[in-house]
Amino acid sequence: MANQIKLRNAPGKYSIRAAGAVLGESSNVIELSEGDLAPVLYVPRADLAMAFFDKTDTSSHCPHKGDATYYTLEAKSGPIPDAAWSYETPKAGLEDIAGHLAFYKDKVTVEEV
Predict the structure, then answer these.
(1) How is the chain split into domains, by residue range?
(2) Is 30 helix (H, G, I), strand (E, B) or coil?
(3) How much is the mean pLDDT over the chain?
(4) What CATH code would you report for 2-112?
(5) What is the rounded CA–CA span in Å between residue 89 and residue 100?
(6) pTM
(7) Which one of 36, 44, 97, 101 is CB 3.0 to 4.6 Å from 84, fit for a cystine?
(8) What does the alpha-carbon distance between residue 49 and residue 68 come to, in Å, rounded to a whole number?
(9) In what residue span(s) does the DUF427 domain sit (predicted)?
């Protein structure tokens, strides 16, 4: 599967929103495609209001991407647990997604504007 992972710069500008708040905008989004799975957008932390994200104790391991850490979004309406994840030190060939967050679609909206 590792050879089926592809990264590309997602064209356009994206807005990142949750719980009625804009969390950021970015023109530097990376799209990760993995086999037959839906593409995942990775947003640079520098383009997000990281003050609203708290790292959690949740983690997972992907044999192709590495170890993921998770973040809870502290929204005005209350916390949204594990709304985002990040590969802090991804496997070789995927280093471009380091320093980026990806989001669960049912918790955070990332859309092209």
Answers:
(1) 2-112
(2) strand
(3) 95
(4) 2.170.150.40
(5) 11
(6) 0.94
(7) 101
(8) 20
(9) 16-106
